[in-house]
């Protein structure tokens, strides 16, 4: 894993113009690195060390990572789909 962490940074490999071929290669390389570092698995496990270079403790970062569960959490709070007209007073 690089010093930039598994998510990397936005300037890596960006010298010169970015052509479609170079972009595709950069994306492929990043995806391979993320697979090797198990980024998706660690993200769902709330692994705060994914942002090690942020300067925050992994435990603090993990506490901020509730957003992956938002669909399940919010679906319990919402009664169901409704139409916007149902929320406006009638004339």
Secondary structure category: mainly alpha
Mind describing the biggest β-sheet? Answer: none
Q: What's the total helix number?
A: 4
Instruction: Estimate the mean pLDDT confidence.
Output: 80
SS elements, strand count:
0
Q: What fraction of residues sit in β-strands?
A: under 5%
Give the uncertain stretches in residue-range form.
Answer: none
**Rough outline:** extended
Distance between the termini: 62 Å
Q: Secondary-structure map with pairings?
A:
Elements: H1 20-36, H2 39-44, H3 58-63, H4 70-77
Structure, described:
By secondary structure, this protein is mostly helical. It has one domain. It contains four helices and no strands.
Give me a quick take on this structure.
The chain has 91 residues and is mostly helical.
Q: What characteristics describe this protein?
A:
mainly alpha; 91 residues
């Amino acid at each position: 894993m690089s010093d930039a962490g598994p998510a990397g940074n936005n300037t890596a490999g960006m010298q010169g113009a970015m052509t479609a071929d170079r972009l595709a290669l950069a994306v492929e390389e990043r995806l391979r690195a993320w697979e090797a570092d198990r980024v998706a698995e660690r993200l769902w496990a709330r692994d705060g060390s994914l942002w090690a270079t942020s300067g925050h403790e992994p435990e603090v970062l993990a506490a901020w990572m509730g957003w992956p569960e938002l669909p399940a959490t919010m679906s319990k709070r919402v009664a169901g789909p409704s139409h916007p007209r149902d929320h406006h007073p009638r004339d």
